[in-house]
Write a structure and sequence with these properties.
The complex is a heterodimer. Chain A is built from nine helices and 20 strands. By secondary structure, chain A is α+β, with helices and mostly antiparallel strands. Chain B has a single domain, classed as MetI-like fold, CATH 1.10.3720.10. Helices cover about 80% and strands about 0% of the residues of chain B. In chain B, helix 6 crosses helix 8. Chains A and B meet through strand 6 of A and helix 7, helix 8 and helix 11 of B.
C-alpha cells in the first residue's frame, strides 16, 4: 500500500450521456493541500462530491486511507465538507452548528463545550457562540462551516469553492488563514476552485481539469513554468502561443517554423519523441519578454508595431502587433524598468526572449 | 379634477365591495343576540339565551366534538402524507414525476358532489364498509393531501438542499437528519398545512353529507337546524362562535407565516 491518503482509480461519473468525470486516476498524499482547478463544468465539483459520497462513481474506485469507498455512505466516510453555500443550519446558533457532528458521539456537556470553545478560538470567533447564522457576515459563516467540519477530525477535508462568495480582500485574508489552519491541524485538504490565483497561492499540488479529464498535476511553479499542454498554459496566467511545425531537435533544443513569427527555438522538456514536421507550439509568458529597438544578437525575436499599453501600478502590460499573427503579443514588465520599455504607439520594435524561457507544446 | 372623481368612485367601490363581503357575515352575530326566533328587523331586544342554550344542547356538542375529531385526524394524516410527497418530489428526480404530481392534485379540481357519490358507492357497494366518522376522514384526506403538498413543496424548495447534505456529511443518518434539520426547518410549512387542512375539513359539507353514518359533523348538524324555525337563532349563535374561532386561527396562521418570511429575509436562506 502506498502512502496516499486518497487514491482515485479510473473513476468515471456519467450523468446520462454526459461524462462529468472521465476515467480519472491520481493520488493525494497525507497532509497535502491539494487543489482541483478548472473552469465551471470541468467535473471538479463532481469529483469532490464523489469523495464525500454524495455521488457514486459510474465506474472505478476511490480509496481513502486504503479503504474502498464505493459502498460507504456519506455519513460513514472519514471526510467532512465545507459547502459552497456554507450550509450553516439556520435554526441553530454558532455553538450548536459547530457541535452538530459531535452530538452523535454523546460527549459529556463539559467535553462538548471545551471542544466547541477550542474550535471557536481557532477560527477567531470566541464570543460569537450564541449568534444565529443570520447575524454573521459571509466570512464568519465561512469560518463556522470550516470549524464545524474540522471538529469531527476528518482524515480528509473537502472544500467546495469556499471563498467564492467573499470579496477580494477578505478572500486573500482567508487564503492565508486556511493555509495556516491546514498546517496546524495537518489534515489532508482537497480544495475545489476555478480561481487559478487562489489555487497557486495555497496548494502543495494542483490538478488542472477540463471536460472531465485531468490535464496536469503539479506544483504551482511547475504548472506555471512547464505546462504540458496549451489548455493548461492558457488557463493558468497569460501565455503567448506561436503555432508552427517542428523542424528538428538538437541538444535538447527544438527548432520550430512558426510561420509569420519566423523560426523560433525552445527547450524540449520531457516529451522528446517528436518527429520533424509535427504540429507544435512555442509558448512564452509575458514577463519573460523584453522589448528592444533593434534585433538582439541571441534568443528568439519577433518584430512588430507597438500597440496599446496598460498601466497597472506595479507593472505594465505592452501589446505588440506582428504581421500575420492572430493575436497581439503580450509583454509585461515591472515598472522599475518603465523607462526602458515605454515608447510611443506605432513605432517598430523587437520582442525577444532567451531560448530557455520558452516552452515547447504539442498540439 | 377628473382623476379626483375617479379616485372618489374607486373609494366608494372599495367600500361597497367590503360591505358586500362582510355585511351578511356580520348579520349572524347581530341576530344571534336578538330576542326573537325570527330573523327579521326590527331587532327586539338583547339576549344571551341562544348562547346559553348551546351549552345544554347535547347533539350540538356531539357534532362539534365529531368535527374537531375529524379535523384533527385529517390534519395529521394529510400533513404526514403531504410531507412525504413534498420530500419525494423536491429531493429526488425520477421518471413519471409530473404524472404523479398531477394525479395527487386531481381531487382539487373534481367537483365534490362527484367525489362524494363515487366514494359513497366505493364504500358501500364495493368495499361494503359502514359509514362513520372515519369514512369522512378518508374523504377529507383525499382533498386535503394536495393542499398540504402545495404548502410543503413551497417550504421545502425554500431552503438549501445542501443543509441536509451537510448533516449527512457530519455523520448523521438520514433518519436523524430528518429530525435534526428537515423537520425543524419545515415547521412553518407543517403548521400552515395543519391549519389549512383543519379548516378545510371543519367546514366541508358535501363529502361529509354523503359519507356520514349515524354521527354527523357540525356543518351537517347546522344544516339540519335550519329546517326548524325555533332552532335558527341557536344556529346563528353557533355560527358566530365558529366565526370568532376562525378569525383567531387565521390571524395566528398569518402571524406565523409572516414571522417565517421575516426570518427568511434576514438571510437564513
Amino acid at each position: 500500500m502506498s502512502d496516499a491518503m486518497i487514491a482515485i482509480q479510473d473513476v468515471t461519473k456519467a450523468f446520462g450521456p454526459i461524462r462529468a468525470v472521465d476515467e480519472v486516476s491520481f493520488e493525494i498524499g497525507r497532509g497535502e493541500f491539494f487543489s482541483l482547478l478548472g473552469p465551471s463544468g470541468c467535473g471538479k465539483t463532481t469529483l469532490l462530491r464523489m469523495l464525500a459520497g454524495f455521488e457514486i462513481p459510474t465506474a472505478g474506485e476511490i480509496l481513502i486511507d486504503g479503504q474502498p469507498m464505493s459502498a460507504v455512505p456519506p455519513n460513514q466516510r472519514p471526510t467532512n465538507m465545507v459547502f459552497q453555500s456554507y450550509a450553516i443550519f439556520p435554526h441553530l446558533n454558532v455553538r450548536d452548528n459547530i457541535g452538530y457532528g459531535l452530538v452523535r458521539m454523546k460527549p459529556s456537556k463539559a467535553e462538548l463545550n471545551a471542544t466547541v470553545d477550542r474550535a471557536l478560538a481557532l477560527i477567531k470567533l470566541s464570543g460569537y457562540g450564541d449568534r444565529m447564522a443570520s447575524q454573521l457576515s459571509g466570512g464568519q459563516r465561512q469560518r463556522v462551516a470550516l470549524a464545524r467540519a474540522l471538529v469531527c477530525r476528518p482524515k480528509v477535508l473537502l472544500l467546495d469553492e469556499p471563498l467564492g462568495a467573499l470579496d477580494k480582500k477578505l478572500r486573500e485574508e482567508m487564503q492565508l488563514e486556511l493555509r495556516q489552519i491546514q498546517r496546524e491541524v495537518g489534515i489532508t485538504f482537497v480544495f475545489v476552485t476555478h480561481d487559478q490565483e487562489e489555487a497557486l497561492t495555497m496548494s502543495d499540488r494542483i490538478a488542472v481539469m477540463s471536460k472531465g479529464k485531468v490535464l496536469q498535476i503539479d506544483s504551482a511553479a511547475a504548472l506555471y513554468e512547464h505546462p504540458n499542454c496549451r489548455e493548461v498554459a492558457e488557463f493558468i496566467g497569460t501565455m503567448n502561443v506561436f503555432e508552427g511545425r517542428l523542424l528538428g531537435v538538437q541538444d535538447g533544443v527544438a527548432r520550430v517554423d512558426a510561420g509569420p513569427a519566423g523560426e523560433l527555438l525552445a527547450p524540449v522538456n520531457g516529451a522528446a519523441d517528436l518527429a520533424p514536421g509535427a504540429a507544435v507550439s512555442v509558448a512564452v509568458r509575458p514577463e519573460k519578454l523584453e522589448i528592444a529597438a533593434s534585433r538582439p544578437a541571441t534568443g528568439n525575436a519577433i518584430t512588430g508595431r507597438r500597440l496599446a499599453e496598460a498601466y497597472l501600478g506595479d507593472r505594465s502590460h505592452y501589446y505588440v502587433g506582428a504581421d500575420g499573427l492572430p493575436k497581439p503579443i503580450a509583454a509585461a514588465a515591472q515598472n522599475k524598468q518603465r523607462a526602458l520599455t515605454s515608447g510611443s504607439a506605432g513605432e517598430t520594435v523587437w520582442v525577444h526572449w532567451p531560448v530557455e524561457a520558452g516552452v515547447l507544446l504539442e498540439r | 379634477m377628473r382623476s379626483q372623481t375617479i379616485s372618489r368612485l374607486l373609494t366608494i367601490f372599495a367600500f361597497a365591495y367590503l360591505a358586500f363581503l362582510y355585511v351578511p357575515v356580520l348579520l349572524l352575530p347581530l341576530f344571534s343576540f336578538n330576542d326573537n326566533i325570527y330573523v327579521t328587523f326590527p331587532l327586539k331586544g338583547f339576549t344571551w339565551k341562544w348562547y346559553q342554550s348551546m351549552a345544554a344542547n347535547q347533539p350540538l356538542i356531539d357534532a362539534l366534538l365529531a368535527s374537531l375529531q375529524v379535523g384533527f385526524a385529517v390534519s395529521v394524516v394529510s400533513t404526514v402524507i403531504g410531507m412525504l410527497a413534498a420530500m419525494g418530489l423536491t429531493r429526488y428526480q425520477f421518471p413519471g414525476k409530473g404524472l404523479i404530481t398531477s394525479t395527487i392534485m386531481l381531487p382539487l379540481v373534481i367537483p365534490y358532489i362527484i367525489l362524494g357519490i363515487s366514494l359513497l358507492s366505493l364504500a358501500r357497494q364495493v368495499l361494503n364498509i359502514d359509514l362513520s366518522l372515519w369514512t369522512i376522514v378518508a374523504a377529507h384526506v383525499l382533498v386535503c393531501v394536495p393542499l398540504s403538498m402545495l404548502v410543503l413543496i413551497a417550504r421545502m424548495e425554500g431552503f438549501d438542499k445542501s443543509l441536509e447534505e451537510a448533516s449527512l456529511d457530519l455523520g448523521e443518518s438520514a433518519w436523524r437528519t430528518f429530525w435534526r434539520v428537515t423537520f425543524p426547518l419545515a415547521i412553518p410549512g407543517i403548521v400552515s398545512s395543519f391549519l389549512l387542512c383543519f379548516s378545510t375539513s371543519f367546514d366541508e359539507f358535501v363529502l361529509a353529507f354523503f359519507l356520514s353514518g349515524t354521527e354527523s359533523t357540525l356543518p351537517i348538524y347546522m344544516y339540519s337546524l335550519l329546517r326548524f324555525p325555533a332552532k335558527v337563532p341557536g344556529a346563528l349563535a353557533l355560527a358566530s362562535c365558529i366565526l370568532l374561532g376562525s378569525i383567531i386561527v387565521i390571524v395566528f396562521a398569518e402571524w406565523y407565516r409572516r414571522r417565517g418570511i421575516q426570518a427568511q429575509q434576514e438571510g437564513l436562506v
